[in-house]
Amino acid sequence: MNYVIAFLVGGMICVLVQILMDNTKLLPGRIMVILVCTGAALGAVGWYEPFAEWAGAGATVPLLGFGNTLMKGIKEAVNQEGFIGLFKGGFTSCAVGVSTALIFGYLASLVFKPKMK
Prior knowledge:
This protein is about 85% helix and about 0% strand. With about 120 residues, the chain is mainly alpha-helical. It has one domain. Helix 2 (about 30-45) crosses helix 5 and helix 5 packs antiparallel against helix 6 (about 85-110). About 20% of the residues are buried. The model has no long low-confidence stretch (mean pLDDT about 90).
């Protein structure tokens, strides 16, 4: 049942984003920023964790989850290190995910030989 809930929640997030893309003049980059900021805001007020507990990977994998991860890292770093944690926390909390995306993106570019448009 966890897989079904994760699939439905992730699918609903994608449907809402697709509706935004189709019915507004917002560019995809701006919609991505809205998603990250929404996840960070929901994490800051403490609403994202219960949602992620219930929805599983359907809530943690999309960009909403990335924003929440950034906010969680910032909160922890500020509690441990004070003001400097505001600048440092987000980087340390998401470093593994960003590094993985960069490495696999590079490997994919070697395998598939992308061309400039």
